[in-house]
Amino acid sequence: MRFRLIAALGLVFTSLTGFTSSQAAPKDIRPIELTIQGAPGQQGAVGVSIDSSLYLPLSSSKTPAPAILLAHGFGGSKNSVATEAQYLAKNGYVVLAWSARGFGQSTGQITMNSPKNEIADIQNLITYLSTRKEVIQQGARDPLVGIAGASYGGAAALLTAGYDKRIDAVVADITWNNLKNSLFPQSIEGSNVAGPFKKTWAGSFFAIATLPNAYLGECGNFSKEWCDAFVNSLNAGKPSAQAEQLLTASSPSTITQNIAAPTFLMQGESDSLFQLSESLATASQITAAHPTTPLSLYWHASGHDGGSDESALTNQKTLQWFDIYLKNKSAKFPNFQVVNSNGTISLQDSTVIPKNLQSSVLPLSAKTEQIQLAPNIGPFTAPIGGIPAALSSLPGLGGAISLASSAIASLGGGASIPGGVVSAALLPGQSAVFDSEPLTKPQTIIGASKVKVHISSNRKDATLFFSLVIHTPEGGVKQPNGLVAPIYIDNIPQSGTDVLINLPAVVVDASIGDKIALAVSSTDQGFQLPNDGRFYSVQVTSPLTIPVTPIQAEITKSDFITWPVAAIVTIILAFGLVYWRRPRHNDAPLEDSDALVSVTNLSKVYKDGYKAVSELSFSVKRGQVVGLLGPNGAGKTTTLRMMMGLIYPTDGEIAIDNKPIYPGSPALANLGSFVEGPGFLPHLSGRENLNLYWRSIGREDEPMIEEALEIAGLGTALDKKVRSYSQGMRQRLAIAQAMLGMPDLLVLDEPTNGLDPQQIVAMRKVLKKYAKTGRTVIISSHLLSEVQQTCTHVVLMHRGRLIAFGTMRKILTRANKKVESLEDIFIELIGDDLTIGKE
Amino acid sequence: MSYNAQKTLPYRVELYRQIKRKRTLFAYAFVLSLPVIVASAVKFGPSGHSGGPTRLGSGTADLIGLATQGAANFTITMFYFATPFLLIAVVSLFNGDTVASEASWSTLRYLLAAPVPRTRLLIQKLKVSLTLSAIAMIMLPIASWFIGLIAFGSKPLQTPLGATLANNVAINRLFVITAYVSISLLFTAGLAFYISVTTDVPLGAVGGAIGVVILLNILDAISGLGSIRVWLPVHYSFSWFDALSSSIQWGSMVRGASYSIMTFAFFIAFAIIKFGKKDVTS
């Protein structure tokens, strides 16, 4: 429990200081530590000492450079913005960070950015910058300078820009427009009455300033007047006249009409202290006074309640803004950017990844849409002493409770609340929910909604907390970031009164089937509540008016134009590449000759340098049966593969019927082949294989499939899957496939391998018969006796070269020796040199 | 003798050659088994009970936890399960195996000597392997939907982002998701096809493609690589989540689809160039 409390306080601390800071990154730039005299303090005429750090860009060639004043958050010091200062200085700015009076090593007391004190201090800092030669000067005592800060520092930035014309660009993050309205929020349109006191947040502020310096007494470093104002407000639950005066003086709202410098306003969606509406108010006041001043609004998922860490993004956008307006860099910077934390899902851990949306218009006069709410709903109470009280958000815990409660809500019965809802933010008997009809289209609400209600109370006054919630079909309630719009109203007549409520500005998605609802609660733990018991009744008297902001995903343009165009260009490039790198073949017919096959100077050197065939030339005429002979590695198979268009010759050419052969050459249609074993689809039958092969080869004449099948002689096995065939069966089927359509040229590589003697005899007959029809057969084999019986001509190869070529008879009678067998010739010609190929 | 190169290896012939293969049937059975196994595990598993919703996971922003919500949710969850591996394996199988298996059966040389022109052979094979892949892509959501309907009823789609989508909207979204996942797998298809052309080992082509995609997925999961990861083609494989928002966010899907088509076009171009110049020695 104790640990939790400390953790929670720690979170408050870091979130109040704005930029979470330090420990990261080695410090490449060593700042110059300075003490600059500020405006006079509370007691004397001597200026307070402002402890400052000046960061100069690393390379002196970058100076003179524009300067940036970097203000820290409440409870921090100049060291809490060191990371940001390093980042900006490394990007070519002179950065001056300082500890505000009452913080860090600076003297003086905290007066919450009073124009007379803190803001006057900053004006002294600007004057100091005008004395530095590293800073670009625009005139006497007028440096080129921007100012940035978050939370307490953000207000300092806005107020300085309002009071000092020398500021040339402003970036303010998660800060207030009107401090009174932030601490005593009043959500009734047009009402000047202070709203309920935001006691937990105010208490946290006070604790941060007083707890670390207990010896300074109960007021810590606060000035007497601010200390009194806090204490009185805590006691009274409403601001004293003096406090109102102080709060107003420290509010940018009093001076926004003087801000003419380009202003970039950031605000957190997860921020119950300074809600999104603060940035909207500042933006509309500046735009009203200076319509041409560049102004941009960025709503991120961070804030005083925690949310996700957005510092990388906010730092980057801050730099961009200064680059545009202090360095005149041109860059696109949308006028309105929103992080929709309900974006998409992470693949790794199912967490939700935020999505960035943007728009070219500020959401100041957004179009609206009306949503009808259920009218009714009966009375509800506020408990005596304000306990128990609902929990929407608390410092350091954020809207987490109300988010978690949406899951719990679906489990409970929830009959006790009108509207049927249970949630920590909406307690039974103390709240009411006014539903819309289930949505028929998805709705994204970005900004503040409005609704008119009729309120009556059994006392003269009423303290109520309104919120916009999403009511899911399962009965769960989503209260976006736990944000509520508190109201305080007094002098209520007996019959009740009509008021217009400004609901909190939120960023939320509602889906089809969800109901958008108005929730109202009589209690909230974050606020000072009336001590006596109450009895309220609230009626909705107008439709809910929700803003409709035209907004798109950040990446839209490049996605919808660049990428598809890139894809089309790539496809065209790919086609171009294929066309450009296509193999080019010479298709011109060769000189007329009566040879069916002519091989001229054919050479093949493989990539590894192996010479398989060199300068081979021979020709084959129609009706011949040619034996291609040679020992293993003589280049027979390589030659046959080149003849089939499978391998590119390195040199020389092959022609069939005077037409050149190359991969895909139409002349190949005239060639049937069986080389290096059969090739079939094992999962289909022999018959299917032959049928499909015939249908694949693009010939439109007769397949003569029966003749081919007769050669295969497979009988009933023809309808069995090829997987089950023996080697011999596959061999015969492959030869049958080669003969399909009876091509003019048949090339067979070792056709008798694996055949029985009877089948070999049959094969011999088939081949002779085939050649008699004027067709031609080329057989490669190592069974010389077989070749001797079948072939009319012989091509003898060794080590890739032609050794002998001629008719069988001529070969057998070579050198006038009477030799009986091809084998003797073979051995005589080749000897016992069985070296494979050529070196 | 008449020969017409445009009639070589017709689409129907190649489809028949491939569809009769055991691996085709196994791949489809594999795809169908996913919804059946998950549905029966949830329905009849030890902690299962009929009636109230059983949750596979936990948490509210949890896709898997919503699987038993209804048919549409079940289908989405099946896509979530299938995207990182199952679909990649199936697409790699169909596209990686197609040329390499012809080489390993020795049928490639007979087709080329027929002659089927080399570019035409690749185009015809690609048409068929993409058809087979598309069938698996369509089979998954349809089967999941019906199995989900039987097991969990037809409740509207609940997205992990808290949206509820009526059935007719949900079916439109499922169309978008199916189309997107199909297109985003073109990268894997192109890669597998390219490897298929370079090797004679079918398993090498399939395994190689799966390996590369898984390696890229691992790289994509290393957040230290930062924005380099947007250039990994697999970076967008889950962009279909954006179809689950209350209104479809197209940005990332357009980017992912375009990138996938770009890489596919180049892989196919390189495959055609490579195959056109290759010495076929298988």
| Helix content, binned percent of chain A | 25-40%
Number of H/I helices of chain A:
20
Strand content range of chain B: under 5%
CATH architectural name of the largest domain in chain A: 3-Layer(aba) Sandwich
Topology-level CATH name of the largest domain in chain A? Rossmann fold
**What is the makeup of the main sheet of chain B?**
2 strands, antiparallel
How much is the average pLDDT of chain B?
88
- Largest interface summary: A-B, 82 and 80 residues
Query: How are strands sequenced across the largest beta sheet of chain A?
Result: 1-2-4-3-7-8-9-10-13-14-28
Order of helices and strands of chain B: EHHHHHHEEHHHH
What does this molecule look like?
The complex is a heterodimer of chains A (839) and B (282). Helix content of chain A is 27%, strand content 26%. Chain A is elongated. Chain A is of the alpha/beta class and 839 residues long. Chain A has 4 domains: 2-178 and 251-364, Alpha/Beta hydrolase fold, catalytic domain (Rossmann fold); 368-550, Jelly Rolls; 555-582; 595-830, Rossmann fold (3-Layer(aba) Sandwich), CATH 3.40.50. In chain B, 65% of the residues lie in helices and 4% in strands. Chain B has a two-stranded antiparallel sheet with strand order 2-3. Chain B is globular and about 65 Å long. By secondary structure, chain B is mainly α. Chain B has helices at residues 11-19, 22-44, 71-82, 86-105, 107-112, 118-152, 167-184, 186-198, 202-221, 251-277, and strands spanning 3-8, 157-158, 164-165. Chain B has one domain (10-277). At the A-B interface, strand 13, helix 12, helix 14 and strand 35 of A face strand 1, helix 1, helix 5, helix 6 and strand 3 of B.
Provide a quick synopsis of the model.
The complex is a heterodimer of chains A (839) and B (282). With 839 residues, chain A is of the alpha/beta class. Chain A has 20 helices and 39 strands.
